[in-house]
Amino acid sequence: MEEKDYTLKELSVLFKTSIRTLSRQIADLVKRDKKRVLVPFDIVKVLYTRHYLGKLPTSAEQENEDDDTADVVWEYTNEEFAKLQKTLIEYPILKEQISYLKEQIEYHKKSVLKHQGQIDKILTTIEQRNYIEAKKEIIKQ
Questions:
Q1: Quick check: pTM over 0.70?
Q2: pLDDT tens string for the chain (141 positions)?
Q3: How many domains is the chain built from?
Q4: Whole domain around residue 6: which residue ranges?
């Protein structure tokens, strides 16, 4: 298989199966459990590779997996692995939240500047009113 994006039709020809079967298999890649989404570890590995390395493994890299010199092994305790898996799943959500919060900060900065302008106008108006009242007092005397 060459490294490219495939349509469902191309995949159905490649795997000699129906488009509907492929659609169901793709939908089954992620499991839903009430309020949670469960992602199988092999999908997490693909997401990790795409996200941190910016690409899917090439066929040459997959062939080199059998070669002992090309292997990289990371050992994790179950607790560390669970934490890593949780982080990988939460990362896109956190990234969206950060983007949303940045937009909110910009909105509030603009709002503060507008309020400062309004306060300046109010202060100028009060100063002018005080000046006019002081002139009236002087004229009456």
A1: no
A2: 566 777 878 878 887 888 888 788 877 777 777 777 777 777 777 777 766 665 545 555 555 555 545 556 677 788 888 888 888 888 888 888 999 999 999 999 999 999 999 999 999 999 999 999 998 888 887
A3: 2
A4: 1-33
Residue 83 inside a domain? The answer is: no
- Asked whether residue 23 is assigned to any structural domain, the reply reads yes
Half-sphere exposure of 35 (CA within 13 A, CB side): 0
Which token pair is 133?
Answer: 């009242």
| Residue 63 within a domain | no
| Whole-number Å distance between alpha carbons of 55 and 48 | 10
Question: What is the C-alpha to C-alpha distance for residues 11 and 2, in angstroms, rounded to an integer?
Answer: 12
Within a domain: residue 99?
A: yes
